[in-house]
Specification:
Layout: E1 6-12, H1 14-18, E2 26-32, E3 35-40, E4 44-54, E5 60-71, E6 78-84, E7 89-94, E8 97-102, E9 112-113, E10 119-124, E11 136-142, E12 147-153, E13 157-165, E14 172-176, E15 179-183, E16 187-192, E17 198-203, E18 213-217, E19 220-225, E20 229-234, E21 244-245, E22 252-256, E23 259-263, E24 267-272, E25 278-283, E26 287-293, E27 296-301, E28 305-310, H2 313-322, H3 326-335, H4 342-362, H5 366-375, H6 380-384, H7 410-414, H8 418-436, H9 445-459, H10 464-469, H11 476-485, H12 491-495, H13 507-517, H14 521-534, H15 536-539, H16 541-544, H17 558-564, H18 569-582, H19 588-607, H20 613-629, H21 635-642, H22 649-658, H23 662-672, H24 676-686, H25 692-706, H26 717-726, H27 733-739, H28 746-789, E29 814-815, E30 821-822, H29 824-847
Parallel strand pairs: 9-13
Antiparallel strand pairs: 1-28, 2-3, 3-4, 4-5, 6-7, 7-8, 10-11, 11-12, 12-13, 14-15, 15-16, 16-17, 18-19, 19-20, 20-21, 22-23, 23-24, 24-25, 26-27, 27-28, 29-30
Helix pairs in contact: 2-3, 2-4, 3-4, 4-5, 8-9, 9-11, 13-14, 18-19, 19-20, 20-22, 21-22, 22-23, 23-25, 24-25, 26-28
Length: 849
């Protein structure tokens, strides 16, 4: 698909080159900055100065001023010109010889060194390898020798560096670093003249058509291939781009990224290097030359010279977008990154992405549009503004200029098609939801939330309540009228039955859930009483689901909640249960308060004739569970409340146990309740997490209560025997035998005695085994220690004492820690000297104090 990428602008007119001569033809061109050199068929070099001008219409034009022309005196056409600006020289190929002239005066410069004659073609190395900034590297093809000479051109000499043989006679070449791309008589090839490695590319008959070998970048070349193709090849002989398709009669090619230009008999064609598609065709008759010079593309006929001026990339991209060619525009934008400063490119790239997104938005390509909006960091208000009445009335937003799209609003876009309208609104809901959950709404959250609320309300979307229940920035002035317009009424009126709204059947639970996480405490207190009156069990969750802290925003102080719930007794109990049992808050007042409420509830039920056994049992189980598990409540207070009730004996026993009054507790359980299993369970509970001796004393105390002869009914022999037989491992048999009456028979105690003796024997044998293992381990450790200390100590006449530095004359020696041998007398002397040295050190340090 076409795009206008270049404009053809005249640079050098016919009269400026030919004058009055008719048969003068341009044979070659060279451009260096503002300087343009032409070589003609009459052996002249013409030097022009090109000045860029801007026309009143803002177009680029060129003015050429002729500075000089010079006759070389060889009567042959000037075939090639190459500028070497570093040394201010112009390299000329004329009459098969290389001549060096001054760039300013065009006078021939005498050069020593190698004389280059019989030359058919040459090229400059634009990626030199010598590292000398004041010379130019070039490759020269010599006629009928099948060789290429690598030379360096200096101000005053030409030096031959290397001569490289080729399989066939080269017709054309291009050079990049050590890599030469050659058009031989029958094929193209890549040759590395440093390593000698070569790679054949593809066949090409140079006699049938003119070869093209052009360097287009580092280690990459453009070649004219059979079938009218422009092939790309790198230094390894591989092609990393698809070929471009041009005509069979291409005479020359040039590159102005991202385009490849080709010249044939009547046209200049422009192909993209990015997608290899033909983008533009310019009519150009009598074309002879096409070359690029540092981003400037020059095309010449035999009589005149023109400049192909590239249109700004931004204009090309906008033309593509105007034609809705989104992918091409984006590809061209990404390719432009190499030619545009980073900050400017980022701004351009974001805008192009936003424009592309709106084009695809208008074509209902919502997934692509969303991705481009996201990457382009679109101000979401640009999108919201297309939807009538969605932006808040207080919004000061104005659309971007120049505009990002051509749409007035959604009505203009859909032309009244309601099905399309709903598609666009569903897309906006999806997009705003994603924007809201990211950082894309920063700075204009009110606009986003208000627009989303309006869309939810209008469509009856299920997420409306979620939006309202979460932290939001919806503007009340816009939201309330909109909700009423679409019959989305106040929750309390709906729940109370005053209004009808089928948004959610579980609306009361939803409201409680909303209040549970609402950070607006004023709103919570305002509606809490209504929720508690409607359903205390559900309403109290407003407080139970909140963190127990008063230091952070949106959290409630439990003291305030408890004070507030005094008028809602059921909710108060549930909240205290939440603090004590669920949250396990360790505060005495909460535990005591809950225990008192439990106790009052039990006493009330016990005194009420209509209360059922199940109700009383459930209430007592709650109280007993709290009394046993908690250690924070005020025991004496509760004991005073249950003391007068004969029906709460078990609770009294538990409270006496909390006060370590185990005798009173066991008497209540054994003699008043006559509940022997409860007494044994009490002993296990009261001795939990205690020492073995404490547990043993408690069970002996229970045995003593059973055997007490002074209580009514006398000793409880059966209960005592059952206790001994069930818990034989807890009792001390000696203490038990002393406590038992002498008239008890041994068969009665046989189970207890057997288990006790067996346990005693087992304990004795286990301790003996443990003692034996410990002794064996100790013996092994002593053996290892002796083996470690008993190793040989080597002493010789060549080995010195580390204390006196004299050698050993006798085998007698002492050992320092670590096994180092020393003289016995040295150790003794050292031991005597240590106290005096210590005193001297102390005295020395005291003199400095």
């Amino acid at each position: 698909m076409s795009v206008k990428a270049f404009e053809l602008v005249p640079a050098v007119e016919r009269d400026q080159v030919m004058g009055e001569k008719v048969r003068i033809n341009i044979e070659c061109i060279e451009c260096c900055g503002k300087h343009l050199y032409l070589g003609t068929n009459d052996c002249f070099i013409h030097h022009f100065l090109l000045e860029e001008l801007t026309t009143p219409r803002g177009r680029l034009a060129y003015s050429a001023q002729k500075l000089l022309h010079k006759y070389l005196g060889l009567k042959k056409p000037v075939m090639e010109l190459k500028a070497a600006s570093a040394i201010e020289r112009l390299i000329v190929l004329c009459d098969s010889s290389i001549t060096v002239v001054d760039m300013v005066t065009l006078e021939a410069v005498p050069t020593g060194g190698t004389k280059l004659k019989g030359v058919t073609a040459f090229c400059i190395n634009e990626n030199p390898v010598t590292g000398d900034a004041f010379c130019v590297e070039m490759a020269v093809v010599l006629a009928r020798r099948r060789t290429v000479q690598i030379c360096s051109v200096h101000e005053d000499r030409v030096q031959l560096l290397k001569e490289v043989s080729t399989p066939e006679q080269p017709c054309a070449l291009s050079l990049d670093g050590y890599n030469m791309c050659l058009a031989l008589s029958s094929q193209y090839m890549i040759l590395n003249y440093s390593t000698g490695a070569s790679q054949d590319l593809f066949p090409f008959d140079c006699e049938e058509r003119k070869p093209i070998v052009k360097r287009i970048g580092r280690e990459e070349f453009l070649l004219a291939a059979p079938g009218g193709l422009g092939m790309f090849a790198n230094a390894e002989g591989m092609s990393q781009r698809a070929p471009v398709s041009w005509s069979e009669s291409v005479m020359a090619a040039a590159v102005c990224f991202p385009y490849v230009l080709a010249l044939d008999e009547g046209f200049v064609t422009v192909h993209s290097m990015l997608d290899q598609q033909l983008k533009q065709t310019l009519a150009f008759r009598d074309g002879q030359l096409l070359q690029d010079f540092e981003g400037k593309v020059v095309v010449a006929s035999s009589k005149a010279v023109y400049i192909l001026v590239p249109l700004p990339l931004e204009q090309q991209i906008q033309d593509l977008l105007a034609s809705h060619r989104v992918e091409e525009a984006l590809t061209l934008t990404e390719a432009a990154q190499r030619n545009i400063p980073k900050e400017k490119y980022q701004v351009l790239h974001r805008r192009i992405l936003q424009q592309a997104g709106f084009i695809q938005f208008g074509q209902l390509q919502f997934s692509e549009a969303k991705e481009h909006f996201r990457k382009g960091q679109l101000d979401v208000r640009e999108l919201i503004s297309l939807y009538p009445l969605l932006l808040p009335s207080s919004s000061s937003f104005t659309r971007c200029y120049p505009p990002l799209h051509e749409f007035a609003d959604l009505n203009h876009l859909t032309q009244g098609n309601q099905e399309k309208v709903q598609l666009f609104k569903r897309f906006l809901i999806s997009f705003l939801h994603e924007v809201r959950s990211s950082d894309g709404a920063n700075g204009f959250r009110e606009d986003v939330d208000t627009a989303l609320l309006k869309l939810y309300a209008e469509s009856g979307h299920e997420s409306l309540l979620d939006l309202l229940a979460s932290e939001n920035s919806c503007l009340l002035a816009d939201s309330v009228p909109w909700l009423e317009k679409h019959h989305k009424w106040m929750w309390i009126k709906i729940i109370n039955g005053d209004l009808k709204d089928s948004t959610r059947p579980d609306l009361f639970e939803y409201v409680v859930d909303f209040l549970s996480f609402c950070s607006n405490l004023e709103l919570v207190w305002r509606h809490a009483d209504w929720a508690l009156q409607r359903d205390p069990k559900i309403g109290v969750q407003i407080f139970c689901r909140r963190p127990v802290s008063e230091e952070q925003r949106g959290q409630l102080n439990p003291e305030e909640v408890i004070s507030y719930l005094q008028k809602h007794s059921q909710a108060l109990v549930l909240y205290l249960e939440h603090l004590v049992l669920d949250r396990r808050v360790q505060k005495e007042k909460y535990h005591t308060h809950l225990a008192v409420l439990y106790t009052d509830r039990v006493l009330c039920l016990v005194s009420r004739p209509s209360a059922t056994e199940d109700q009383i049992s459930a209430a007592r189980q709650k109280l007993q569970h709290l009394l046993r598990d908690s250690s924070l409540y005020r025991v004496q207070l509760l004991l005073g409340k249950v003391q007068a009730s004969e029906q709460l004996l078990l609770e009294r026993a538990t409270l006496h146990g909390k006060l370590q009054e185990h005798g009173q507790a066991l008497n209540i359980l054994v003699h008043q309740l006559r509940d022997h299993p409860a007494a044994e369970e009490y002993c296990s509970w009261a001795s939990a997490s205690r020492s073995t001796s404490y547990r043993q004393d408690l069970f002996h105390q229970l045995l003593g209560v059973y055997l007490d002869p002074d209580v009514p009914g006398g000793p409880q022999t059966v209960a005592a025997v059952d206790l001994l037989n069930r818990h034989a491992d807890v009792f001390d048999p000696v203490r038990v035998l002393k406590l038992l009456p002498e008239d008890w028979s041994l068969p009665l105690l046989r189970p207890f005695l057997c288990r006790t003796l067996r346990a005693s024997v087992h304990a004795r044998r286990t301790s003996q085994v443990a003692l034996g293992l410990a002794q064996a381990q100790n013996l092994q450790l002593q053996h290892d220690r002796l083996m470690h200390r008993g190793g040989p100590v080597l002493v010789s006449e060549k080995k010195g004492c580390p204390l006196c530095h004299n050698t050993f004359s006798e085998p007698d020696c002492a050992c320092l820690p670590g096994g180092t041998p020393v003289h016995i007398q040295c150790v003794a002397r050292r031991a005597l000297d240590l106290p005096s040295e210590h005193r001297q050190e102390n005295g020395h340090s005291s003199n400095h104090t």
